[in-house]
Amino acid sequence: MKTNGWAMLALAGLAALFAAGCEEEYDGPWVPDLSGQWKGSYYFLQYDKTAAGPDSAPAPAEAGKASKRGERDITAVIAFDEENHTRVTITTSLQGRAHFLYGNLDASGNMVLTDQYDGETWTTHRRRATPDLIEINDLVFEGGGHSGTALGLRTIRLDEHLLAQQAEESVSYFDP
């Protein structure tokens, strides 16, 4: 089959013009849009020692088994890596621990983050992140290790999404 060279050239030219007018879009997995500025709280959820056994933590629904300690208001900026939207950073108004967290977000809203300050892992193990609520936790064990009796959860709860668009403050992804 013989093709018309002029027709092919014209089609290629139109395709180039169309492509020049379009922004390159992210084609990776879909993740909830959490970017922007948030308000919320930081607190320690202390378990009743009788309710927690070795390597376990009481279920959140167990009334009277945990109590909040040291709750304070915070703000946060959430940003995504421009080339890989599953990589996320959270910069909070806290100083030291939990000021800068980096890690991954999956399509189900599950987050696994690392605290730049102390290397601790923060996750959404109690509740998936949504565009309306993000709750991430750092499980704290007796003696400061990663096993034994669970004493409670350090918790960041962001429940007021101030800007659904990218925050004005630019935050780059921290890659250790």
Description of the structure:
The protein has a single domain (36-161), classed as Lipocalin (Beta Barrel). It has one helix spanning 5-21; strands at 36-47, 66-80, 87-92, 100-105, 111-115, 121-123, 134-141, 150-161. The chain is mainly beta. Helix content is 10%, strand content 38%. The longest helix has 17 residues, at 5-21. Mean pLDDT is 76; it is low at 8-24, 51-55, 58-64 and 165-176. It contains 1 helix and 8 strands. The chain has an 8-stranded antiparallel β-sheet with strand order 6-5-4-3-2-1-8-7, with no helix packed on it.
Summarize the structure.
The chain has one helix at 5-21, and strands at residues 36-47, 66-80, 87-92, 100-105, 111-115, 121-123, 134-141, 150-161. It has 176 residues and is mostly beta strands. It has an eight-stranded antiparallel sheet with strand order 6-5-4-3-2-1-8-7, with no helix packed on it.
- Give the CATH class: Mainly Beta
- Strand neighbour order, sheet with most strands: 6-5-4-3-2-1-8-7
| Proportion of strand residues | 35-45%
In round numbers, the mean pLDDT is: 76
Spell out the key features of this protein.
single chain, 176 residues, mainly beta, Lipocalin, eight-stranded antiparallel β-sheet, 1 helix, 10% helix, disordered C terminus
List the helices and strands and how they pair.
Blueprint: H1 5-21, E1 36-47, E2 66-80, E3 87-92, E4 100-105, E5 111-115, E6 121-123, E7 134-141, E8 150-161
Antiparallel strand pairs: 1-2, 1-8, 2-3, 3-4, 4-5, 5-6, 7-8
